Amino acid sequence: MLNDKVAVIYGGAGSLGAGIAKAYAQAGARVFLVGRTEATLKNVATKIGAEYDVLDARDEQAVEAHASSVAERAGGIDVSFNLVPRGDLQGVPLTEMSVEDYTRPVVQGLACQFITARAAARRMVAQGSGVILALDSASANGSPMMGGTGAADGAIDALVRQLAQETGSAGVRVCGIWTAGVADSLTPQKLVAAGGPVMDDASLRGVLSHLDSLRMTKRSPRIADIAALATFLASDAGAAITGTWVNATAGMFPS
């Protein structure tokens, strides 16, 4: 589905980024992974036959220089997907949360998404085609105890819709995926980093079971599910989809 496509995945060494990168490579794309840690990037790149570059996706100049480099090396950029963590803190009531903890995912997340999307859009508009993708938890629909995640998701939702309107006439599509928790991407370490309690494997299974119970399908999405959807959206088969978010929450939120 992605033969002759060039895809850049920011945050490509994470579990979800690696899963999507693998699917893109299997679909025929030339994949460039981007992140801050060379060891993890190299590990994923070696396994799937991708290329990688070490940089901070929040650095405007570095992102612009990298986009130019990829376009020169590969002949253009067809797909850009930002999966960089935002520093969300969850599990704390808003009445007890600091301003810094609430605004961090909004400021960092939106700035990072804007920087990478803008770099991709500039080159895609010039070449007359391209797909820019984003992903969040759909918490802008309303989720208690999620801290600044809802505000950050809402801001990125708006960015996707606006950028799609501004670049659509040049042949560029911009859309996103709502997931609200991808089961096999969650680990005790990630949940603790997001503000959750220290937990063992049994506790993690309890969290995953609870997430399943919140879905209409009673099954949380897996990395393979999101990777397959991301491949479709990046391909010409998704040509009619732009300026919107695809609800892949398995019914946690109605659209």
What descriptive keywords fit this protein?
Rossmann fold; 8 helices; 255 residues; single chain; 7-stranded parallel beta sheet; globular; alpha/beta
Question: Can you tell me about this structure?
Answer:
The model has no long low-confidence stretch (mean pLDDT 93). This protein has one domain (6-182, 221-247): Rossmann fold (3-Layer(aba) Sandwich). The longest helix is centred in the middle third of the chain and has 29 residues, at 99-127. Helix 2 links the parallel strand 2 and strand 3 (51-54). It has 255 residues and is of the alpha/beta class. 46% of the residues lie in helices and 15% in strands. The chain has a 7-stranded parallel sheet, with helices on both faces.
- Helix residue percentage: 40-55%
- Which CATH C-level class is it? Alpha Beta
The structural class is: alpha/beta
Q: Name the CATH homologous superfamily.
A: NAD(P)-binding Rossmann-like Domain
Query: Which fold name fills CATH's third level, the topology?
Result: Rossmann fold
CATH architecture: 3-Layer(aba) Sandwich
- Report the biggest beta sheet as strand number plus sense, adding barrel if it closes: 7 strands, parallel
Provide mean pLDDT, rounded.
93
Distance between the termini: 27 Å
Any idea what the radius of gyration is?
A: 17 Å
Number of contiguous helices: 8
Order of strands side by side in the largest beta sheet?
Answer: 3-2-1-4-5-6-7
Shape: globular
Our estimate of the beta-strand percent is 5-15%
- Count of β-strands: 7
Q: Uncertain regions: pLDDT < 50 for 5+ in a row?
A: none
Q: Please tell me the total number of domains.
A: 1
Q: What is the H/E string?
A: EHEHEHEHEHEHHHE
